[in-house]
Amino acid sequence: MKAALYHAFGVRPEITTVPDPAPPEGGVVVEVAATGVCRSDWHGWMGHDPDIRLPHVPGHELAGTVVALGAGIRNWRVGDRVTVPFVSGCGRCAECQAGHQQVCERQFQPGFTHWGSFAQYVALHQADQNLVALPDDLDFVTAASLGCRFATSFRAVVQQGRVRGGEWVAVHGCGGVGLSAILIAKALGAQVIAIDIGAEQLRLAAELGADLTLNSREVPDVPGAVRELTGGGAHVSLDALGHPDTCANSVLCLRTRGRHIQVGLLLGDQSRPAVPMDRVIAHELEIYGSHGMAAHTYPEMLAMIGRGALRPERLLGQQVSLEQGVDMLVDMNRFGGRGVTVIDRF
């Protein structure tokens, strides 16, 4: 099969031919119809993820068709249209047994723990537990865009943040995750204030429904500005970027008993940021992490999409070839946009 393969971190992947995967026991092989290009892929390519073993094929936001079944499969057939969460569970550990596959102790992540979807075919493990059936009216490109940023934001806003209509939601960082969070929070009836350093990203945030925008380069006290604009502070605040400053600002902009959700990754020297714990204690704030979304919780999101309450296609960027997708991977900082660029030409 055709795939994007790299042999060293930070060295451009080559488009090459590698053996087709065989379905693992309890797993399937999916013919990839579309896959997203995500900043997490860039982090992996740069060597920031300890799970990756070289040589490696990246890609974790995928949708396609089942073409081969491993032994023991009960719930899937060849020809089924599917997607998969980027964090999938082993099905045996305590967290999986409790329904928390997104924090599985032995998780499977295509594109990280195993070869991923920058290829014509990808092998997926524990398929009966981890695959998600796609509605007939949901196209592959849109479905692939759900796999990481959108589903992660959905869990952060809906399941962890418990956002309700009329609440104020602050979103710090308006990249793919942040823009997704804005779209989802607005669908729930929340009021949203978007914070970023880029005028174009703030314009996109407003286009997607943000009620207020703040350019943090122009505002000396972001938490104070959020508290003033929202009449006391956000009920829910998300660090959708992953930086010590946005993490602290997110906590500090909350009103009493507000909820901070950490979605953006903090890596390397920034992985242990200072958190204003005095404010957390005095104001009884809640702090949550958010890491993917379990397959069995996808129906709520798909139902909102099906009835038109959520329109993830508004976040789609370009649809490109595998070769162009590699260009975007290696030059991630130059290729911005609405959030999700999808490879759909293999």
Question: Would you kindly provide a written description of the structure presented here, covering whatever features stand out?
Answer:
It contains eleven helices and 15 strands. The protein is an alpha/beta fold and 346 residues long. The strands form three sheets. Strands 3, 4, 5, 6, 7, 14 and 15 form a seven-stranded mixed sheet that branches. Strands 10-9-8-11-12-13 form a six-stranded parallel sheet, with helices on both faces. Helix 4 (140-160) crosses helix 5. The N and C termini lie close together (10 Å). The mean pLDDT is 94.
Question: What is the strand and helix layout of this fold?
Answer:
Elements: E1 2-5, E2 14-17, E3 28-37, H1 39-45, E4 62-69, E5 81-83, H2 94-97, E6 121-124, H3 127-130, E7 132-133, H4 140-160, E8 168-172, H5 176-187, E9 191-196, H6 199-207, E10 212-215, H7 222-229, E11 234-239, H8 244-252, E12 254-262, H9 277-282, E13 286-289, H10 298-306, E14 316-321, H11 322-330, E15 340-345
Parallel strand pairs: 8-9, 8-11, 9-10, 11-12, 12-13, 14-15
Antiparallel strand pairs: 1-2, 3-4, 3-6, 3-15, 4-5, 5-7
- Helix-strand sequence: EEEHEEHEHEHEHEHEHEHEHEHEHE
Averaged pLDDT: 94
Shape: globular
Work out the number of β strands: 15
The helix-and-strand class reads alpha/beta
> Beta-strand percentage?
15-25%
Annotation field: number of helices:
11
Q: Low-confidence segments, ≥5 residues, pLDDT <50?
A: none
Q: Largest beta sheet, briefly?
A: 7 strands, mixed
- N- and C-termini, Cα separation: 10 Å
Cα-based radius of gyration, to the nearest Å: 20 Å
Residues in helix, %: 25-40%
